[in-house]
Automatic annotation (TrEMBL):
InterPro entries: ATPase_P-typ_cation-transptr_N, ATPase_P-typ_cyto_dom_N, ATPase_P-typ_P_site, ATPase_P-typ_TM_dom_sf, ATPase_P-typ_transduc_dom_A_sf, ATPase_P-type_domA, HAD-like_sf, HAD_sf. The lineage of its organism: Eukaryota, Metazoa, Chordata, Craniata, Vertebrata. Residues 1256-1281 are annotated as: Disordered. CDD domains: P-type_ATPase_cation. One of its GO terms (molecular function) is metal ion binding. This is Polyamine-transporting ATPase 13A3. It is a multi-pass membrane protein. GO terms for biological process: intracellular calcium ion homeostasis. It comes from Crocodylus porosus (Saltwater crocodile). Residues 296-420 form the P-type ATPase A domain. It is an enzyme of class 7 (translocase). The keyword Transcription does not apply.
Length: 1281
């Protein structure tokens, strides 16, 4: 009702617009067509505005009625067609419906309805005010007045705010950009000082309710769809619709039995699918809902405390963190107090992290500037949704407060759940080709349809029979059982994976895993053991390194600054009496055997300040205990033992790469400062005279051997710094003029199975890449140790620097020197075992690639932003990616996919979730959060599951090809049989169809899929799609053979001297058996053959085609190199043998019961023998063509090379070495195919780079980004002297 006056007004205004203005309006609308939402982000989409059109709706309704509802189904499958068919285009400002299209390679369409909400303002972060103050646009005021006239809720006036929802995110209309936009919380363009000044006092009830109108309920709602809704969605799948059409047609044609069989199979398939989908929803719902709704305390603007449900939180609310901890229901930034948080949801490591309050630039006189708050940049001060606050620390009387910055699906956890609920589709050539193949079958069916109609009309067949038979030819050509047949192999592979401890929640991904040619591995917990072990320490005295020591807990060192630094410089805390914290800190503290004691809450409240944590050695380590003589202690009384109190702690900063503590040996006047961190950073903070001259060489020796090295430093704090001054001092004032103490050497051991698994992958020509959050040099060393990088290979470190001080971004190229390995370590893979190359698919006659790129997360980010044209080249040779953030891991996977790699990802943490989901085949080694996002989860936490998954994937993929080829041949054989019989106005009988479809096809399909995977990975890779040379040649050659022998039998039977047009009185068998003839004649006389089923042509075609189904089943059931030989598939072997015997018996020794059931006629014994000869010759020809001609030639030339265009020969396998050598000699003249440009981008790029003299970059050179004035793509290469 409220929109009618507005609409009429708009129409009046439009009618008065001059023609020129109308033209401008049209132009504006055309411009609006190119509007984008989420611009520059991963989910960027084009957006178009539409309004409902009544006359189009009427036309669509008529079309739906005329097509029997099929048009409605078509519009359901095609959202873009649905909107364009029922709506007219308009501007976004006035639209009722929006049409969205992703800008990625998939170009997927979505539609959403625009809704209106009434509000007191247009921006949630502004205080609600009177609309007269807000609205200056005449059109807006006009709309407001019209709405106000009809609004009877009182004198308060509201503004209409337009929005739509898509993928659990609301997009509101933004007048400033004239488009829809996502409303951000406090994480967008809000400064740190503003959070303290404007957002730290809490919200009034009015402002809270106003904001909730925009942000909605703070809940990550994963609704479990009802079974009915899931059923409707599943049943409306095009395949099931076609099956429904086929079943109706068969019932009309009285073909009940097979229709029933298809219905039963479809029902089983639908139930199985519904169970799997609903189970995934329930698991995800339970994971999210476990702690999604809790009661929280918030502080209002009037300082009052209020208890509300977490679902009512909005950005700007001040949440009070309870002292006993909680699970965070939102993203919030600490504005006061300290928290200890378990962030396993985000990092994958159950390590408590200390979160401190956000620094206030207004209170820090030395602050360089007021920076914009960002949850990622200020993660040390941000409590993320889903993480667990274990306990809080605070000053007495001051509460631990956090300002809510993001709620619902905008939070870090919400974004993770959205990536699981709405994953980016994975492109796989098999499924594209399957649809193309079906389309070609539809074309063949169309030809058969036309032929049947024309032939029937010429022979004056009744209309209803013409309709049924012509439609029947379509169901014969496009088999309705195809989806069930294709699913069988995947289901069997899923069962086999389950037996070896790999669980799958996305069965379709199993096939894709068969194509993986690159696998990314996380390092810690995946390639290496979870924890670090203390290998030893190397102290410094008088600026010289002492010999390495294994133990740091000796009596002589107990009071040394080195051990004091190990005892105090950490972030460990006691949680319920158990020491918790960073694994490195734990190992370091456990190595010295000291004891840590923390003050209780009562002690803290008593002293009105945070009491220091105290550490002390065990009594047995102390040489003697002397009572403390100094009673003028500033902190508190001490017992007569050696203890150190930690007075102030500066937590570890990844940006600074160090942490610092200020401590005091109880009983001494002066305090001590201890620093621990990256050796290079610590050395730069020390007095030069305290750092050994051989510091760099010693450090490099350790890092090259894969050790994690931590440096320690110490200084005495001047006595002028009191306890109060220390609490407010800047860390820069402390972290200078330090004395270098020495090095702690930690060891991260490889998992026992890691080298062997990587060796198997390399032998199978599968690239391996390391993606880790660890230090780069450590990662490079681990890559060498496990065989990912061979000893003689060069490693090029790409150090990218962002633009700074007017300079453009640049990349500095460094060559990492290969130092001698330690004596107890040897390369996991010997160089003579594997070709020395990074790109395993490079051509053997060209130069081998012997270099790898390594870079950290910061460099990767700079390269992605400023050197986009170098990204494909770097990922083509990139092997080590260190210090990578979770989103960067996902970006790397996408970058590899962009150059046509089939990427696998193996990780163990929630920080790998995005990459696990985005990869073609993601496998989680953890059964926690990561397993929900990952298609595969391994119960065994080792990478040995990766080759197993690829082997099963290859077996499932080849099985899918076999089944598809078999079903295609089944369709063509039956199609040709029916077409031949239609030419004489005959057909196959109902029981003949039933015998072929049920007894032969279904039995064969469901048993031929049972072949297990081959026992090892081979270098050969299966084709990625059906449209490939070998597969097409295989299908076409068998098609020609089957058609030829079937046609030969059909024609030859007519040439026989006994042949005549069959009638019930025909007696062709009397030459061999009078008994058979009499009984047959008697049977034929008593039955009327209405459909002309009984004739010699039918019987001949039926027997030949029945054997042909079995022949192609055997021909297509290949084993090596991807599956076990078919003779090991006992069920398939028994089924085929039984069917061969049964068909041979009914052909050579006919019986009245079977003949009458199958509507067969008796033929002379000589013709039966002739049929046996035809079938034997058919079998021999089919087997020779497939296994000799195609395998010996096409397999070696095409199938053994990368299907994306690599013409190299496969790595010879010992059992096939002789055959391969023969094939190689035979095919030498065909090597010219290597000049063919590969289809895959990575192969094409590899060929280009192999002959590029400027690649790889020379050592000690710099690549500069293009300047704004330069032409696109120009770069400078500068040699640094």
């Amino acid at each position: 009702m409220g929109t009618d006056p507005q609409t009429s007004c708009i129409f009046k205004q439009r009618s008065s617009i001059p023609e020129v203005e109308k033209f401008h309006v049209t132009l504006n609308m055309e411009k609006e067509e190119k509007k984008l939402v989420n611009k520059g982000e991963e989910d960027e989409m084009e957006i178009y505005g539409y309004n409902l059109c009544r006359w189009k709706l009427v036309l669509v309704a008529v079309g739906v009625l005329c097509t029997g509802g099929f048009l409605l189904l078509l519009l359901y499958w095609m959202p873009a067609w649905r909107v364009k068919a029922t709506c007219k285009r308009t501007t976004l400002k006035d639209c009722e419906v929006v049409l969205l299209r992703t800008t990625d390679e998939f170009r997927i369409w979505f539609c959403a309805k625009v809704r209106i909400v009434l509000s007191l303002g247009t921006s949630p972060l502004q205080s609600p005010a009177s609309p007269q103050d807000k609205v200056s646009n005449g059109h807006s005021i006009h709309v407001f007045e019209n709405l106000a006239e009809e609004n009877k809720n009182g004198p308060q006036k509201y503004l209409p705010i337009r929005y739509f929802s898509h993928h659990s995110v609301k997009y509101f209309w933004n007048d400033a950009v004239q488009s829809f936009d996502v409303i951000k919380g406090l994480d967008d363009s809000v400064s740190c000082s503003s959070i303290h000044a404007d957002h730290s006092t809490g919200l009034t009830k009015v402002v809270h309710d106003y904001r909730k109108l925009f942000y909605g309920v703070n809940e990550i709602a994963v609704k479990v769809p009802s079974i009915f809704k899931l059923l409707i969605k599943e049943v409306l799948n095009p395949f099931y619709i076609f099956q429904l059409f086929s079943v109706i047609l068969w019932i009309t044609d009285e073909y009940y039995y097979y229709a029933l069989a298809i219905v039963v199979m479809s029902v089983i398939s639908i139930i199985s699918s519904l169970y799997t989908i609903r189970k995934q929803y329930v698991i995800l719902h339970d994971m999210v809902a476990a702690h999604s709704i809790v009661r929280v305390s918030v502080s209002r603007a009037n300082q009052e405390r209020e208890e509300i449900l977490s679902t009512d939180l909005v950005p700007g609310d001040i949440m009070l963190i309870p002292s006993n901890g909680t699970i965070m229901p939102c993203d919030a930034v600490l504005v006061s107090g300290t928290c200890i948080v378990n962030e396993s949801l985000l990092t994958g490591e159950s390590v408590p992290v200390t979160k401190t309050s956000l620094p206030n630039p207004a209170e820090d006189p030395k602050a360089t500037g007021d920076e914009v708050y960002s949850p990622e940049t200020h993660k040390r001060h941000t409590l993320f949704c889903g993480t667990t606050v274990i306990q809080t620390r605070f000053y007495s009387g001051e509460l631990v407060k956090a300002a809510v910055v993001r709620t619902g699906f905008s939070t870090s956890k919400g974004q993770l759940i959205r990536s699981i609920l709405y994953p980016k589709p994975t492109d796989f050539k098999l499924y594209k080709d399957a649809y193309m193949f079906l389309l070609s079958l539809v074309v063949v069916a169309g030809i058969g349809f036309i032929y049947t109609v024309v032939n029937s009309i010429l022979n004056k067949v009744e209309v209803h029979i013409i309709i049924i038979e012509s439609l029947d030819i379509i169901t014969i050509t496009v088999p309705p059982a195809l989806p069930a047949a294709m699913t069988a192999g995947i289901v069997y592979a899923q069962r086999r994976l389950k037996k070896i401890g790999i669980f799958c929640i996305s069965p379709q991904r199993i096939n894709i895993c068969g194509q993986l040619n690159l696998v990314c591995f996380d390092k810690t917990g995946t390639l290496t053991e979870d924890g670090l072990d203390l290998w030893g320490i190397q102290r410094v005295e008088n600026a010289r390194f002492l010999l390495p020591e294994e133990r740091a807990c000796s009596e002589g060192l107990v009071k040394s600054p080195f051990v004091a630094c190990m005892a105090t410089c950490h972030s460990l805390t006691k949680i319920e009496g158990v020491l918790s914290g960073d694994p490195l800190d734990l190992k370091m503290f456990e190595a010295i055997g000291w004891i840590l004691e923390e003050a209780t809450e009562e002690e803290t409240a008593l002293h009105n300040r945070i009491m220091p944590t105290v550490v002390r050695p065990p009594k047995q380590l102390l040489p003697e205990s002397k009572p403390a003589t100094d009673q003028d202690m500033e902190l508190f009384e001490l017992p007569t033992t050696y203890e150190i109190g930690i007075v102030r702690q500066f937590p570890f900063s990844s940006a600074l790469q160090r942490m610092c503590v200020i401590a005091r040996v109880l009983g001494e006047k002066k305090m001590d400062a201890y620093v621990k961190g990256a050796p290079e950073v610590i050395a730069s903070l020390c007095k030069q005279e305290t750092v050994p001259v051989d510091f760099e060489s010693v450090l490099e020796e350790y890092t090259k051997q894969g050790f994690r090295v931590i440096a320690l430093a110490h200084r005495k704090v001047e006595s002028k710094f009191t306890w109060h001054k220390i609490q407010n001092i800047n860390r820069d004032a402390i972290e200078s003029n330090m004395g270098f103490l020495g090095l702690i050497i930690m060891q991260n051991k490889l998992k026992q199975e890691t080298p062997a698994v990587l060796k198997d992958l390399h032998k199978a020509s599968i690239r391996t890449v390391m993606v880790t959050g660890d230090n780069m040099l450590t990662a490079i060393s681990v890559a060498r140790d496990c065989g990912m990088i061979l000893p003689q290979d060069k490693v090029i470190i790409a150090e990218a620097l962002p633009p700074r001080d007017g300079q453009t971004a640049r990349i500095n190229w460094h060559y990492a020197d290969t130092l001698p390995k330690r004596t107890n370590s040897s390369p996991a893979i010997k160089s003579e075992d594997i070709p020395i190359k990074l790109v395993q698919d490079s051509l053997e006659d060209l130069q081998m690639t012997k270099y790898h790129f390594a870079m950290n997360g910061k460099s990767f980010a700079v390269i992605q932003e400023h050197f986009q044209d170098l990204v494909p080249k770097l990922v083509l040779h990139g092997t080590v990616f260190a210090r990578m953030a979770p989103d960067q891991k996902t970006q790397l996977v996408e970058a590899l996919q962009n150059v046509d790699y089939y990427v696998g990802m193996c990780g163990d943490g929630a920080n790998d979730c995005g990459a696990l989901k985005r990869a073609h085949g993601g496998i989680s080694l953890s059964e926690l959060e990561a397993s929900v996002a990952s298609p595969f989860t391994s119960r065994t936490p080792s990478i040995s599951c990766v080759p197993n998954l690829i082997r099963e994937g290859r077996a499932a993929l080849i099985t899918s090809f076999c089944v598809f080829k078999f079903m295609a041949l089944y369709s063509i054989i039956q199609y040709f049989s029916v077409t031949l019989l239609y030419s004489i106005l005959s057909n196959l009988g109902d029981f003949q169809f039933l015998f072929i479809d049920l007894a032969i096809i279904l039995v064969v399909v469901f048993t031929m899929s049972l072949n297990p995977a081959w026992k090892e990975l081979v270098a050969q890779r299966p084709p990625s799609g059906l449209i490939s040379g070998p597969l097409l040649c295989s299908v076409l050659s068998q098609m020609v053979i089957c058609i030829a022998f079937q046609a030969m039998g059909f024609v030859w039977v007519k040439q026989q001297p006994w042949y005549e047009s069959w009638t019930p009185d025909s007696d062709a068998c009397n030459l061999s058996s009078a008994t058979d003839t009499n009984s047959s004649s008697h049977g034929n006389q008593t039955l009327h053959d209405e459909h002309n089923i009984k004739n010699y042509e039918n019987t001949t075609v039926f027997f030949i085609s029945s054997f042909q189904y079995l022949i192609v089943a055997i021909v297509f059931s290949k084993g090596k190199p991807f599956r076990q030989p078919c003779y090991k598939n006992l069920l398939f072997v028994f089924s085929v043998i039984f069917l061969y015997i049964f068909i041979s018996v009914i052909m050579l020794h006919p019986t009245e019961v079977i003949d009458s059931s199958l509507e067969l006629v008796c033929v002379p014994y000589q013709w039966r023998v002739t049929l046996v000869v035809i079938i034997i010759i058919n079998s021999v020809v089919s087997i020779l063509v497939e296994n000799v001609f195609l395998d010996m030639i096409l397999w070696k030339v095409v199938f053994s090379r990368d299907k994306q265009g690599d013409c190299r020969l496969a790595t010879p396998q010992p059992p096939q070495e002789a055959a391969d050598r023969w094939a190689a000699c035979f095919l030498m003249p065909l090597f010219s195919c290597r000049k063919k440009t590969p289809q895959a981008k990575y192969m094409h790029l590899a060929q280009e780079l192999l002959v590029d003299p400027e690649w790889p970059p020379k050592p000690r050179t710099t690549t500069e980004a293009k300047a704004p004035t330069q032409e696109n793509g120009s770069r400078h290469i500068i040699t640094v002297t």
